Amino acid sequence: MYRIVEREDLTPEIHLFRIDAPAVARKALPGQFVILRVHEKGERIPLTIADYDRDSGFVTVVFMEAGKTTQELACLKAGDSLANFVGPLGIPTEVEKFGTVVCVSGGFAAAIVVPVARAMKAAGNKVISIMGARCKDLLFWGDRMEAASHELIIVTDDGTCGRKALVTEPLKELLEREKVDRVIAIGPTIMMKFCAKTTQPFGVKTIVSLNPIMLDGTGMCGVCRVSVGEATKFACVDGPDFDGHLVNWDQLIARRCIYLEEESCSLEAWKDHVCQRA
Ligand SMILES: Cc1cc2nc3c(=O)[nH]c(=O)nc-3n(C[C@H](O)[C@H](O)[C@H](O)COP(=O)(O)OP(=O)(O)OC[C@H]3O[C@@H](n4cnc5c(N)ncnc54)[C@H](O)[C@@H]3O)c2cc1C
Ligand code: FES
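Above: inputs. Below: predicted complex with FE2/S2 (inorganic) cluster.
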């Protein structure tokens, strides 16, 4: 069992859990993820490692309530335990001295981008970060992103914080303003797709962290397959980071929707069950 040592609600629907998982903390690197189960009968869900502390053995994950399992997870509090917490999985984000790196995050992905931006800065890069969210209430960790960057641009869809824009607008302006050597874009699939489309005419390599449906996380089930260039890749073992200019975005978006009906039934059944117990 993996004990939740701390819970923090970053927004009403985005939560941070610090988990006692020394074996994961010992080997974790930015960009890797875990697969957890809330209880023995629960489904496996992948969550990115937002932070880790090798001394205390604690691993931080940040998740947004999306469907049944993430809502079930959100019912837990400090002191509760998870049945499984397997990782670190996937290939760490490539961190080296590239020059100027632009780190773009959307929504809950700010928690994933902060350690990447921090590592890029520590490697000697000039780091410019763009944080986007639908509105002010969904923004968090602006202070951490600022500390991890040389320049921070905040945008919201409704203009309640920072500039009223989508992340692609300041991204295009930066590409026109100065030489950018690498872009890292992590967030909703549609956001990553359009970041890649924005950088493509400038020829700037753009790394995205793909989030297909995953099951075993070890390359055996094939559920997470994605098309990247001419190749078929398994995001759990070959990724989750890929070159955004080579990803077949339409296929990824279609495959992520395959189980929408089942996911909705599962959420309804779980809510009925919870209501009957209450
Ligand atoms: C490598 C990776 C890292 C991720 N990191 C984070 C993170 O740090 N924080 C976070 O909030 N979310 C993260 N996700 C997405 C998270 O795994 C899904 O939101 C979660 O599995 C949804 O489960 P659910 O039962 O709550 O919702 P569901 O009702 O099952 O699904 C809601 C939505 O999530 C998608 N989804 C469903 N199951 C999975 C699955 N096993 N893997 C991926 N997507 C799925 C569906 O396409 C659907 O659009 C990550 C996904 C991947 C692949
Ligand atoms: S999740 Fe099964 S192969 Fe990747």
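Residues 260-277 form the longest helix (18 residues).
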